[in-house]
Amino acid sequence: MAMASFARRKAYLLSRNLSNSSPDVFRYSHSLTAFSRGFASSGSDENDVVVIGGGPGGYVAAIKAAQLGLKTTCIEKRGALGGTCLNVGCIPSKALLHSSHMYHEAKHAFANHGVKFSSVEIDLPAMMGQKDKAVSNLTRGIEGLFKKNKVTYVKGYGKLISPSEVSVDTPNGDNTIVKGKNIIIATGSDVKSLPGITIDEKRIVSSTGALALSEIPKKLVVIGAGYIGLEMGSVWLRLGSEVSVVEFAPDIVPSMDGEIRKQFQRSLEKQGMKFMLKTKVVGVDTSGDGVRLTLEPAAGGDKTTLEADVVLVSAGRSPFTAGLGLEKLGVETDKIGRILVNERFGTNVPGVFAIGDVIPGPMLAHKAEEDGVACVEFIAGKIGHVDYDKVPGVVYTSPEVASVGKTEEQVKTLGVEYRVGKFPFMANSRAKAIDSAEGLVKIIAEKETDKILGVHIMAPNAGELIHEAAIALQYDAASEDIARVCHAHPTMSEALKEAAMATYDKPIHI
Ligand SMILES: Cc1cc2nc3c(=O)[nH]c(=O)nc-3n(C[C@H](O)[C@H](O)[C@H](O)COP(=O)(O)OP(=O)(O)OC[C@H]3O[C@@H](n4cnc5c(N)ncnc54)[C@H](O)[C@@H]3O)c2cc1C
Ligand SMILES: NC(=O)c1ccc[n+]([C@@H]2O[C@H](COP(=O)([O-])OP(=O)(O)OC[C@H]3O[C@@H](n4cnc5c(N)ncnc54)[C@H](O)[C@@H]3O)[C@@H](O)[C@H]2O)c1
């Protein structure tokens, strides 16, 4: 069924009363109210919706539920709303990435533009202060949104004691019971610890410690070349640390398109980041002043050692369900502790739902938000919509790397015949004008239909450029559809248009 628009497809499915829960397509409900326990406000103290966790999944679900007219309470234990993302994740990391980038540009790039300084200095406490200010403004902003939308905010640790009751231990030592017809678990994730490595958030840090170091480490060793390792590694590299990244897999960011990944790794190496791939950390000694790591090839072999002042453990995150009471209630989880849900985010226990990092799927803030909106739409008897195949991913390094849809390796595995169109920023006039021409756009389209299957961009602002591609994928567009849209000149976006032309025909500017 070729359907270009969500509205058309929604109308079609509603008219047919169809379910469509294949992972490759939109998620829809066939029996729109069957799994929730109703939503008409009872007028009693009981909530229609209780959300445990105030991160991007939980707070967005709570606001949307209230906007849909549901009496809603959100329970959060950390004393501030916004979850991992706002407090110790997306926002503080992007603040430090921006500040460190400005320092690096001032030191290494401004002179090329004729802007000269006699000296450039880092004021680390001021840099951290700017980051903390951004975080506190934003967390307070969510409290304001809760008030505006009449979401009740309960501070404390929530534990499910029945499918409709949450016991909350509040910060002042009290306990209160919050009742709800529908309960949404949005408790997120926590850093995955590695055997034999104890995080003390001083010398051996998680991302949380890496966001708040009081000094610039001379030598930083990062374990794991994923999103966190490369972003936080970039921050401290730009501020002057020697950064070595130890990665178990043969490649950095294993989920990335192979061709883009190679160029990305070369770019990071040019900036001074060192990679030790196919390598594992088998021991950590903190008995001296610094940290001494023992390394071994992933396939086994001779051990070597590596010295560090600080070690960042960034080898993935695990779902956070500690103390939630899931076992007693019989809520099903998978082998790695993620809560299992159906296409309406319902667990096996009627009336109990789960969203965000605590369920399977990409561990990303925008995915958690989409889950949250769709989940409460289902609870309210409406149609929710999330497509995990079309969730964009962005590594906010310099250059940024952004992607949506399938990698070339995935398309090959599927056995689909495809075409690839590429366009380098070296041939883009805006990129040349601003002396920032590293990177490329790569589009993969089905050969027979020209339908776009995946788009991968490496560029300074790839995280912004990717959304044109996300819309194209969402509406089943062909590469020719992008190529025939008039793009303003001179913009970096023209590289996407040219890559699209290169996919089905020929580009003009190369
Ligand atoms: C350093 C770092 C950088 C990141 N950068 C990005 C990025 O740039 N873009 C992106 O998309 N994603 C990023 N992420 C991932 C992103 O933070 C998560 O995907 C997102 O926060 C998940 O949202 P969530 O609501 O599911 O969970 P969380 O944000 O983890 O929120 C869960 C909340 O639930 C609370 N909670 C847990 N248990 C209970 C309980 N029993 N009672 C009450 N409250 C409870 C927790 O305190 C927490 O506040 C980053 C993560 C890290 C660590
Ligand atoms: N820009 C963003 O959107 C952003 C930024 C930060 C974090 N995040 C999210 O947070 C999650 C966690 O980030 P992360 O970087 O910790 O995880 P990740 O899954 O992105 O990367 C972890 C890396 O560690 C490697 N690894 C695993 N065990 C190892 C070991 N024992 N030794 C060496 N390497 C090992 C893996 O092969 C992988 O490359 C990610 O899934 C991501 O979705 C997103």
Automatic annotation (TrEMBL):
<dbReference type="InterPro" id="IPR006258">
    <property type="entry name" value="Lipoamide_DH"/>
</dbReference>
<keyword id="KW-1015">Disulfide bond</keyword>
<feature type="binding site">
    <location>
        <position position="94"/>
    </location>
    <ligand>
        <name>FAD</name>
    </ligand>
</feature>
<keyword id="KW-0285">Flavoprotein</keyword>
<feature type="domain" description="FAD/NAD(P)-binding">
    <location>
        <begin position="48"/>
        <end position="372"/>
    </location>
</feature>
<feature type="binding site">
    <location>
        <position position="158"/>
    </location>
    <ligand>
        <name>FAD</name>
    </ligand>
</feature>
<dbReference type="InterPro" id="IPR036188">
    <property type="entry name" value="FAD/NAD-bd_sf"/>
</dbReference>
<keyword id="KW-0274">FAD</keyword>
<dbReference type="InterPro" id="IPR012999">
    <property type="entry name" value="Pyr_OxRdtase_I_AS"/>
</dbReference>
<feature type="disulfide bond" description="Redox-active">
    <location>
        <begin position="85"/>
        <end position="90"/>
    </location>
</feature>
<protein>
    <recommendedName>
        <fullName>Dihydrolipoyl dehydrogenase</fullName>
        <ecNumber>1.8.1.4</ecNumber>
    </recommendedName>
</protein>
<feature type="binding site">
    <location>
        <begin position="187"/>
        <end position="189"/>
    </location>
    <ligand>
        <name>FAD</name>
    </ligand>
</feature>
<feature type="domain" description="Pyridine nucleotide-disulphide oxidoreductase dimerisation">
    <location>
        <begin position="391"/>
        <end position="500"/>
    </location>
</feature>
<feature type="binding site">
    <location>
        <begin position="224"/>
        <end position="231"/>
    </location>
    <ligand>
        <name>NAD(+)</name>
    </ligand>
</feature>
<feature type="binding site">
    <location>
        <position position="316"/>
    </location>
    <ligand>
        <name>NAD(+)</name>
    </ligand>
</feature>
<feature type="binding site">
    <location>
        <position position="357"/>
    </location>
    <ligand>
        <name>FAD</name>
    </ligand>
</feature>
<keyword id="KW-0676">Redox-active center</keyword>
<dbReference type="Pfam" id="PF02852">
    <property type="entry name" value="Pyr_redox_dim"/>
</dbReference>
<keyword id="KW-0560">Oxidoreductase</keyword>
<dbReference type="GO" id="GO:0045252">
    <property type="term" value="C:oxoglutarate dehydrogenase complex"/>
</dbReference>
<comment type="similarity">
    <text>Belongs to the class-I pyridine nucleotide-disulfide oxidoreductase family.</text>
</comment>
<keyword id="KW-0547">Nucleotide-binding</keyword>
<feature type="active site" description="Proton acceptor">
    <location>
        <position position="489"/>
    </location>
</feature>
<dbReference type="InterPro" id="IPR004099">
    <property type="entry name" value="Pyr_nucl-diS_OxRdtase_dimer"/>
</dbReference>
<dbReference type="Pfam" id="PF07992">
    <property type="entry name" value="Pyr_redox_2"/>
</dbReference>
<dbReference type="InterPro" id="IPR016156">
    <property type="entry name" value="FAD/NAD-linked_Rdtase_dimer_sf"/>
</dbReference>
<dbReference type="InterPro" id="IPR050151">
    <property type="entry name" value="Class-I_Pyr_Nuc-Dis_Oxidored"/>
</dbReference>
<dbReference type="InterPro" id="IPR001100">
    <property type="entry name" value="Pyr_nuc-diS_OxRdtase"/>
</dbReference>
<dbReference type="GO" id="GO:0050660">
    <property type="term" value="F:flavin adenine dinucleotide binding"/>
</dbReference>
<dbReference type="GO" id="GO:0005739">
    <property type="term" value="C:mitochondrion"/>
</dbReference>
<feature type="binding site">
    <location>
        <begin position="363"/>
        <end position="366"/>
    </location>
    <ligand>
        <name>FAD</name>
    </ligand>
</feature>
<dbReference type="InterPro" id="IPR023753">
    <property type="entry name" value="FAD/NAD-binding_dom"/>
</dbReference>
<feature type="binding site">
    <location>
        <position position="247"/>
    </location>
    <ligand>
        <name>NAD(+)</name>
    </ligand>
</feature>
<keyword id="KW-0520">NAD</keyword>
<dbReference type="GO" id="GO:0006103">
    <property type="term" value="P:2-oxoglutarate metabolic process"/>
</dbReference>
<keyword id="KW-0496">Mitochondrion</keyword>
<dbReference type="GO" id="GO:0004148">
    <property type="term" value="F:dihydrolipoyl dehydrogenase (NADH) activity"/>
</dbReference>
